[in-house]
TrEMBL record, chains A, B:
It comes from Actinoallomurus liliacearum. SMART domains: FCD (SM00895), HTH_GNTR (SM00345). The keyword Transcription regulation applies. This is GntR family transcriptional regulator. Residues 13-80 form the HTH gntR-type domain. The keyword DNA-binding applies.
Length: 219, 219
DNA sequence: GGTGGTTAAATTGTCGACATCTTCTTCGAC
DNA sequence: GTCGAAGAAGATGTCGACAATTTAACCACC
């Protein structure tokens, strides 16, 4: 056994196929700093994969917008500026608005119960000051509404954009008092979706993302 | 010189780098039929590139949504169903709405003149029955408004979605009477953008795409 | 002491060969 | 005659080595 099991990403030796997932996770979890160079040879050692696999993974991640590639100059972790984060959130605003509207049209009784349950859990998390838990529920809610909307295209677009913004989303969650504002907006979205009110649901979703954008600008 | 210059895509022997562009063009131009298998070895001969280059290109195009890849089963031209085309247009509807609003905020006098000029040319093309010319102007208008909006993120999203839909867009352009409907909507968008009216511009853009969706459903 | 050019190291890009998987064909049995 | 299995052919996935390019260091020269 070689003498370097000190990988930056934690789990040494990764299967030859989900190298992409491993590197993606390392980036979004912040184990690779923004603008950090991603040298193919180094990564192949760290993850125990061949250089080809790493190379393919870097192309994939470049298409997802997580890494930047320059011809003959290699790849580095993409640093999303505040300006770009705002742009991304603006696109998310309109697309998630669409998804919320579609969800309001198609939501079933069973899904209504699920959404209500998520809403209750969010309320509880905020009341108890569990920021991390709230953040998880936040992601879950957004994802479920998109899934309920049933728009595969929109889902793909949002998922890609969300991954690019994790860092900024995280910073936002730590702003004091932010969860309270956010909670009310989330509950409003849930209410309108469950009321089968597409237009109102779209407005509520857009209002929420608009609020996120305002908070980003305030930093 | 080898004796096979009979490429399906036209230009034999392509530089080792823009194989992606060549294959993409062949797909959107319809020279590769939907669901047609794209065998790496065949393509590398047709385009005079190595298999690695073709392989990289296919990955790229898969990320753009133009080809489908299945593990160990190869790539084929993605056949976008009517249902998917509608979904895609719905996302475009909201994102281009956003771009139109942004464009209305930022448009300069010079750009206003340009948009007006495009509008006049569209009117003339419809009057003269130049369907192809009108289709080109159509694309130009959409692209310019997005560029004027200055949202790089939104631009990327729309560009990707547009490429997936070319086939259906093309079919739509051939519907009798369709250009007339479309023309009025385009002129409305131009008017509102030039009037620096973000909300009205967004509504106009959404109305146009909604009309496109209706036309798609009518097929 | 600073600047320009040249060399060397490091890293990415490309290519060909081999391994693995899928699928079509073929042969045999029921 | 049909179903099933085994084998062969085709295509993709993976790997290692070589070529091309960028970047850094170094030395000569002004």
């Amino acid at each position: 056994m070689p003498a370097q099991e000190q990988t930056a990403a934690g789990s040494g030796a990764v299967a030859p196929e989900d190298v992409t997932a491993a590197i993606r996770e390392a980036i979004v979890r912040g184990e690779f700093a923004p603008n950090q160079r991603l040298v193919e040879a180094d990564l192949s050692q760290q993850f125990g994969a061949s250089r080809s696999g790493v190379r393919t993974a870097l192309f994939e991640l470049a298409n997802e917008g997580l890494v930047e590639r320059v011809q003959h100059r290699g790849a580095r972790v993409r640093a999303v500026t505040l300006e770009e984060a705002i742009e991304i959130s603006e696109v998310r605003m309109v697309v998630e608005g669409l998804c919320a509207a579609k969800a309001a049209e198609r939501v079933t009784d069973e899904e209504i119960a699920e959404l209500r349950s998520i809403g209750d859990a969010m309320r509880a998390a905020v009341a108890d000051g569990h920021v991390l838990k709230y953040s998880e529920l936040n992601q879950l809610l957004h994802r479920r509404i998109i899934e309920i909307g049933g728009q595969a295209t929109a889902a793909g677009v949002v998922e890609r954009l969300r991954a690019q913004n994790v860092r900024h989303q995280f910073r936002l969650a730590l702003v004091p008092g932010r969860p309270n504002v956010s909670l009310a907006e989330h509950l409003a979205i849930i209410d309108e979706v469950c009321a089968h009110a597409p237009d109102a649901a779209e407005r509520a979703a857009r209002r929420h993302l608009a609020s996120v954008i305002q908070a980003l600008k305030a930093i």
